[in-house]
Inverse folding.
């Protein structure tokens, strides 16, 4: 549409413009009427003069009114948030109108830039808060949650926004501390509190009053740190130290008892001396294997976050273990039968650690298996490692090393506890079979490091089978 066509449409639609022209011409009309009445001007001349005035008014007023209308439309569109940047047809002839539009455009540009910065800032603030590992909660002046980062939603549930804090965190001590802030009795509070629902947790909270009320009405911010894991580790460490010192105390007490006997009652008894010295030797050997296992366990724990490297040949491991345990197997009148599938490649694993696991499982099979029976060692290739709770398993193909011995069925209660540190079945303690109770705990840690799995099956007919699953290759 051309400019002139646009203007005519505009005039038709805006009759107020005609009204305005007539209104502006009204005083002149009165002057002409008065002059005609006073015979100062003839009626025909008055009508011609009045018409001339009206035409002049139209000529001068039209552009101004037209541009004002355009300006009004332009600014109305801007205020409604429409994109008017492409409105190239806005042609302004009056200097004042052009200046007004330039000022309005500059203002619009300024605020839209400011808005972009604010939007970017809000987005980056949200991303930063969501990337924090610990929960961060914002509350309003009545204790309602008005903001929460991702860690909070993970810990307390997705739909917590606008809920009252006491509907989400069930701890009287914590809510009381928050209320002290809301009642303006203090500016900050810190406390350790415990939750029993939905799971048992030990948490540390820091509640801080904000110096001003934020955009989303937050008056205080709460940061929470989960101390549950640290508490469990502390307990595990103290249990471990208690167990380790208890296990060491027993052989030490035996040794010191015999030393005393040798110094007193058995001072001149050659036969007793030899017998007691043999027992003392056995006990020191036990102590040294206990210390060795303890060191091995702590070393493995230190390595737990690094994936094993290097290629390991499982055939070689079986050869090494069979050789190391051949004498023990002979003494127990058991023989080791080995079956290895042809398609077993070298796997990504720590050679010495895997050898330690296979050696302990084979040693257990000899120690706890029925004498005069075979121990079957098999290696096969499987498509997937069976899933395990609370540990990372590598997907993809794996090698399965199974070690089976004959013997009575292990009860389900015992099966569930075999990999616990220092756990030994009562019947084996009663039979005085020596062991530290750490071999399977070490094996489990090694297998976790390799992202594999350890399973146990036991029944009276087939005996007991421990199977180690190890991925053929490991990926970060
Ligand atoms: N093949 C098995 N058959 C029956 N019971 C077993 C077998 N393997 C392990 N156990 C039971 O599990 C317990 C824990 O085994 P683990 O290898 O951890 O310790 P250990 O053999 O007692 O000590 P260590 O390995 O230091 O010699 C054993 O004491 C035994 O009671
Ligand atoms: Mg063992």
């Amino acid at each position: 549409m051309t400019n002139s066509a646009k203007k005519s449409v505009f005039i038709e639609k805006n009759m107020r413009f005609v009204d305005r022209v007539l209104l502006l011409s009204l005083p002149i009309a009165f002057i002409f009427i008065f002059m005609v009445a006073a015979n100062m001007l003839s009626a025909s001349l008055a009508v011609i003069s009045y018409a001339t005035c009206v035409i002049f008014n139209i000529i001068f007023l039209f552009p101004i009114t037209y541009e004002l209308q355009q300006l009004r439309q332009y600014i109305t569109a801007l205020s409604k948030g429409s994109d008017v940047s492409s409105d190239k047809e806005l042609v302004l002839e009056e200097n004042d109108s052009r200046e007004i539009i330039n000022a309005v455009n500059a203002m619009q540009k300024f605020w839209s830039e400011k808005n972009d910065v604010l939007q970017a800032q809000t987005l980056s603030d949200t991303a930063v808060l969501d990337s924090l590992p610990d929960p961060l909660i914002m509350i309003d002046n009545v204790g309602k949650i008005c903001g929460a980062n991702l860690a909070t939603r993970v810990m307390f549930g997705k739909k917590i926004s606008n809920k009252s804090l006491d509907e989400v965190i069930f701890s009287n001590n914590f809510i009381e501390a928050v209320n002290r802030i809301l009642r303006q009795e203090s500016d900050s509070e810190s406390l350790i509190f415990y939750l029993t629902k939905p799971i048992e947790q030990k948490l540390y909270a820091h509640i801080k009053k904000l110096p001003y009320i934020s955009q989303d009405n937050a008056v205080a911010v709460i940061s929470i740190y989960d101390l549950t894991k640290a508490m469990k580790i502390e307990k595990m460490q103290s249990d471990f130290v208690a167990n380790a010192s208890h296990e060491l105390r027993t052989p030490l007490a035996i040794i010191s008892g015999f030393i005393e006997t040798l110094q007193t009652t058995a001072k001149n008894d050659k036969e007793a001396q030899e017998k007691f010295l043999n027992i003392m030797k056995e006990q020191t050997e036990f102590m040294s294997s206990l210390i060795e296992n303890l060191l091995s366990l702590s070393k493995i724990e230190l390595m737990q976050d690094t994936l094993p490297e290097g290629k390991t040949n499982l055939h070689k491991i079986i050869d090494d273990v069979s050789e190391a345990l051949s004498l023990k197997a002979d003494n127990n009148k058991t023989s080791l039968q080995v079956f290895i599938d042809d398609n077993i490649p070298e796997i990504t694993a720590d050679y010495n650690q895997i050898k330690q696991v296979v050696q302990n499982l084979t040693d257990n099979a000899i120690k706890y298996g029925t004498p005069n029976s075979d121990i079957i060692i098999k290696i096969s290739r499987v498509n997937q490692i069976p899933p395990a709770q609370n540990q990372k398993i590598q997907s993809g193909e794996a090698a399965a090393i199974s070690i089976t011995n004959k013997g009575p069925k292990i009860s389900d209660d015992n099966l569930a506890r075999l990999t616990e540190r220092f756990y030994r079945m009562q019947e084996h303690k009663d039979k005085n079979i020596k062991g530290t109770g750490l071999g399977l705990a070490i094996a489990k840690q090694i297998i976790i490091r390799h992202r594999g799995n350890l399973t146990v099956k036991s029944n009276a007919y087939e005996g007991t089978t421990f199977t180690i699953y190890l991925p053929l290759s490991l990926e970060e």
User: Anything to note?
Assistant: The pocket of magnesium ion (ligand 2) is lined by residues 360, 363-364, 435, 439 (CB under 6 Å). The radius of gyration is 45 Å. The longest helix spans residues 43-79.
